[in-house]
C-alpha cells in the first residue's frame, strides 16, 4: 500500500526573499557615497604622483645631461599643459621641436583631474639648474583638483616636492 508522504517545502518564501533583497539594496546605497569619494581621492592622488614624477624626470634630465631644463606650464584657459624643454620660450605644444616631454605623454590631467593653478607661467617657467638639479629662485607650486578636492605640489629651492591638501582633506595627504 502506498504511503502518503508530505513533501516539506525546501527554500525560502517570497516575503523572506524580498526582505533579504531590500536589506542588500539598503546596504549598497549606504556604501556608495564613500566608495565614490574613495575613487575620486584615488584618481587625484594618482595624478599628483604622476605630476611629481614628471617634475622629477625634468630634474633628472638637468643632472644627467648637464643642461638647464625648463618646465613650462599653462593652466586656466583651455586644456592644461606642461612641457619639459631645454629652452625657456618653448611653446606648450606636443610638436614643438624644443620640447623633450609633454604632459599628454605622461598621461597627466586625465579624467576629471585638472591643473587648477600654478605659480609658474609661460613667461616665468620652472628651471632646474644644470648638474645640480636645484631650482634656486624658482620655488613655487602646482594645484590640481577634481571638484572640491585639491592637492598642492610645493617645490622648494632645493628641488624637493611636498604634497598637501589646501581644501577638503584627501586621505594619506597632509593639510597645508
Automatic annotation (TrEMBL):
Gene3D superfamilies: minor pseudopilin epsh domain. Keywords: Membrane, Transmembrane, Transmembrane helix. InterPro entries: N_methyl_site, Pilin-like. It comes from the Bacteria. The chain crosses the membrane at residues 12-32. NCBIfam families: IV_pilin_GFxxxE (TIGR02532). This is Prepilin-type N-terminal cleavage/methylation domain-containing protein.
Amino acid at each position: 500500500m502506498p504511503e502518503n508522504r508530505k513533501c516539506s517545502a525546501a527554500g525560502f518564501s517570497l516575503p523572506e526573499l524580498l526582505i533579504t533583497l531590500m536589506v542588500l539594496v539598503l546596504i549598497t546605497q549606504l556604501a556608495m557615497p564613500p566608495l565614490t569619494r574613495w575613487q575620486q581621492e584615488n584618481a587625484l592622488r594618482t595624478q599628483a604622483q604622476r605630476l611629481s614624477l614628471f617634475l622629477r624626470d625634468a630634474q633628472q634630465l638637468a643632472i644627467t645631461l648637464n643642461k638647464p631644463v625648463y618646465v613650462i606650464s599653462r593652466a586656466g584657459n583651455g586644456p592644461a599643459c606642461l612641457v619639459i624643454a631645454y629652452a625657456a620660450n618653448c611653446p606648450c605644444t606636443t610638436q614643438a621641436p624644443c620640447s623633450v616631454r609633454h604632459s599628454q605623454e605622461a598621461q597627466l590631467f586625465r579624467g576629471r583631474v585638472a591643473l587648477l593653478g600654478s605659480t609658474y607661467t609661460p613667461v616665468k617657467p620652472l628651471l632646474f639648474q644644470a648638474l645640480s638639479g636645484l631650482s634656486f629662485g624658482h620655488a613655487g607650486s602646482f594645484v590640481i583638483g577634481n571638484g572640491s578636492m585639491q592637492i598642492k605640489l610645493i617645490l622648494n629651492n632645493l628641488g624637493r616636492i611636498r604634497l598637501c591638501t589646501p581644501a577638503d582633506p584627501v586621505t594619506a595627504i597632509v593639510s597645508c
